[in-house]
Structure formats: structure tokens, C-alpha cells
Amino acid sequence: MESLNIKGTYDTPTVIFNPESSTFEISGRSYPEDTAEFYIPVLEWVESYVSNPNEHTQFIFRLDYFNSSSYKPFLDILLKLEGMVKKGLVVEVEWFYKDGDWDIKEAGEEFADIVDIPFKYTSFN
Predict the structure, then answer these.
(1) Do 61 and 28 touch, CB atoms closer than 8 A?
(2) Residues with Cβ < 8 Å from 87, sequence gap 6 or more?
(3) What is the DSSP annotation of 39-100?
(4) Exposure check for the chain: N or C terminus, fewer CB within 10 A?
(5) Could you report the per-residue pLDDT of 16-46, keeping only the tens digit for each?
(6) How many Cβ atoms sit within 10 Å of the Cβ of residue 31?
(7) Is the pLDDT of residue 56 over 90?
(8) CB-based burial of residue 102 (10 Å sphere; 0-12 exposed, 13-18 middle, 19+ buried)?
(9) Looking at the predicted structure, is the pLDDT value of residue 125 above 90?
């Protein structure tokens, strides 16, 4: 499976999904003008990946900001990853948040309450 690499802009995140290293990251800001259009290829890629995943997957969210319309695609990704956990595969989510940005941290905690995936929280400057 090929990697997915989307270069971030001012209002869209960088997406780097590398199945060779089992590392998948969404970083930056996520408030695209058309959220559904932006995330369709991302969700399609994740759907393809979960049909033939690696034994171990590390998914990283390193967001400065995301709007409410980005919440649904993030949840969709996490629900697909949760399906992998239910099949006995190892999935870890690392949720980064800026020092003092409790809103982003709490958003990660909300996601962790919804899905049965181990979350690790890490602050950054």
C-alpha cells in the first residue's frame, strides 16, 4: 500500500500516513472550507488500510486547532482504528496538544471516552 501525503496549508492539516513505518499523523490546523471534500481521500485511505493493516499502528494527532466540522472525520478514523483493536491488533493514539491548550487536550479525552483505543497525551510548545 502506498503512503498518503497531503501537504498542509493555513487551514488544512498535513497528513502523512506511512504504512511501511506503521506511523500515521495528522498535524497542524484543520478547518478546511469544505471539510467533507478534504477528508474523503483520507477516510478512503484509512478504510483501505484497515482492510489489510499492520500488526501495530501508531496514529498521531498533533493539532494546533480544529473546527467542529473536523470532529466527525476524526471520529470516523478512530472508529475504524477501534475495529482493528477488536480484531486483536495493536493500535495506539498519541494526542499532542500545545502547552496550556486544554480545549485540544479535552477533545482528545472525549475521543478516548468514545473509542476503546489506548490514548497517550503529550504537550508541546
Answers:
(1) no
(2) none
(3) HHHHHHHHHHHHHS--SEEEEEEEEEEE-HHHHHHHHHHHHHHHHHHHTT-EEEEEEEEETT
(4) C
(5) 999 999 989 999 999 999 999 999 999 999 9
(6) 16
(7) yes
(8) exposed
(9) no
